Amino acid sequence: MLFSPYTLGDMELKNRIVMSPMLMYQAESDGHVTERQVLHYGARALGGVGLVMTEVIAVHPQGRISESDIGLWSDEHIPGIRRIVDAVHACEAKVGLQLAHAGRKAVLPEGCVAPSAIPHSEGSATPSELTTEDVRALVRDYRDAAARADRAGVDCVQIHAAHGYLIHEFLAPMSNRRTDEYGGTLENRARFLLEIVREIRAALPTGKPLLVRFSGTDLIDGGVTAEDAAQLAKWLEQAGADFLEITSGNITKEYSGDVYPGYQAKFVDGIRSQTTLPMGSVGSIHSADLAEYLLRDGGIDLVFIGRALLRDPFWPIHAAADMGVEPQLPIPTYARATGPYQRGF
Length: 345
Ligand SMILES: Cc1cc2nc3c(=O)[nH]c(=O)nc-3n(C[C@H](O)[C@H](O)[C@H](O)COP(=O)(O)O)c2cc1C
Description:
TIM Barrel; about 30% helix
């Protein structure tokens, strides 16, 4: 399964390996992409990944986690994104772009914003509370950034609704004490995310997939519960999402669950009954064997691989060797990188 093709809308992947979004803190201070980032993503495409997902890309300058994040809040950012897209495409992989706003987790001279003036953790800055009009403007920022991503040629877009960033802060009661239509009931707390999904869906061509990364549970009182996540999955499908990727936690600094190979895969189970959408899993999926098992028996269609691909851009080639599979490589000659007991010629 790991090396079988997969189609989502108009996007055809050569295998089920997705490079999980990982922020590298390498952009220019105005959000522009650097040469190093183009090479970073190109290297994973050369290594045989089917879908290269970018790191968080900010929809607003104040939505950056740091001053070294990539931005897409203006048309001027499009050519840089296009360079990543072209590099990945030149290596026969597809590219997705992760849209995000850091919310109260932004560490910027201009401070941070959030649904409510509650800091992320002890020692974190107290965010300014967004007005209702600010929230509506941010929905438009997401939509406009997605439209720019489309113009830059990305194959799909992912909304980051997890890990304690802005959308997650709206979803979790502990970070959202609002009294307007964006706070209170789960329906209200989900409104920001669902409005973003609807707006982006309308801004993208029909066949261009929209993925959502969200928390299957936060494992903490006042966080997103498994029941919330199941209901969210249903609403996300109705709002026009095409694919759900399930992660967990980080609405606060501490993660209270155990961490072991594939530890987040179980969170897919509670959601499955509520949606017909395909799903993906992430989290310590570092071996080909585990990836294969999850694809066959874990109810998922794509595996998201993070740190294993940071350690080794050629992870897919090694996985294929472990499984005795011939991977489809952009440079087929890489397959001749055999070991010392075979002759290299
Ligand atoms: C250095 C680093 C940066 C990360 N940046 C992002 C990010 O930009 N967006 C995101 O959704 N997750 C981010 N993550 C989380 C990963 O995408 C992934 O969910 C997590 O590392 C678990 O997968 P793994 O065990 O395969 O690494 C980051 C993780 C690491 C290690």
